[in-house]
């Protein structure tokens, strides 16, 4: 087995995803424990070296600032729920610097936005990020190929969709660096069966018990958000009657296809409000609502808040997590 030691730098942005961070750091800690020596070294970094608050409100002390990064083999970027608004010029230049130095850059959860802002990907790059932000990313970077895979690797830029996928990524990387025996010990210790990187992010087990007709219909709906397809045309495209389509949706989802389609579009709108700063009327248009009043009334009915109230509530939480870095 390779006896080399490796340096892992974890860049923590304010409101970083603690679930992914814990899985990454614990995988390396357990590896060191089983080897009875430090084969993996970790360094926590924030932009200015100050403590950082995670998504669940816990604060973490760091080992230094972006200027104090020292010879990293891997740089993990744990991004925030504001994936474009808080990426400073300093952060983006740091990513470019270490990409040039051939460090492996790992973009976790929403960190693909920072990689794109830094100009490190192009239309030949295949990326992944958390499924909630896929459509938001494509709105900004329509030329980039975005997969639904849990992880993707492009030379020395890697992408991990976050959550449990972080553990899949760590097992694979440790396998590559130190062999399958140690990697299996770690997956066993964390009681996890690793998935292939091309595994879908979403759990298809629930959908597998639903009709193939509904799944095809939903696929078409999700590809027609900004300009919703009429149910008559949807049924025609599927080769069934409207009545057959409605009956199957009521059986599988207890909702008509019209209501189901509306919920998909409202969920897209909710994600745009949470992650982006687009104007309300722009979000309405992106999600297929061409009259603000229709969008606002539908949103209130689904989420019991106006779009503006929804955004203000979460921005208050997000900004409270940023104070230590201001």
UniProtKB/TrEMBL annotation:
User: Which InterPro entries did the record assign?
Assistant: Class_I_gatase-like, DJ-1/PfpI, Homeodomain-like_sf, HTH_AraC
Which keywords fit this entry according to its UniProt record?
DNA-binding, Transcription, Transcription regulation
**Bilayer-crossing regions:** none
Record-annotated HTH araC/xylS-type domain positions: 215-313
The answer to whether keyword Transcription regulation applies is: yes
Q: List the molecular function annotations (GO) for this entry.
A: DNA-binding transcription factor activity; sequence-specific DNA binding
What SUPFAM superfamilies does the annotation carry?
Class I glutamine amidotransferase-like (SSF52317), Homeodomain-like (SSF46689)
Q: Which PANTHER family match?
A: ARAC-FAMILY TRANSCRIPTIONAL REGULATOR (PTHR43280), HTH-TYPE TRANSCRIPTIONAL ACTIVATOR RHAS (PTHR43280:SF28)
Name assigned to this protein: HTH araC/xylS-type domain-containing protein
Species of the source: marine metagenome
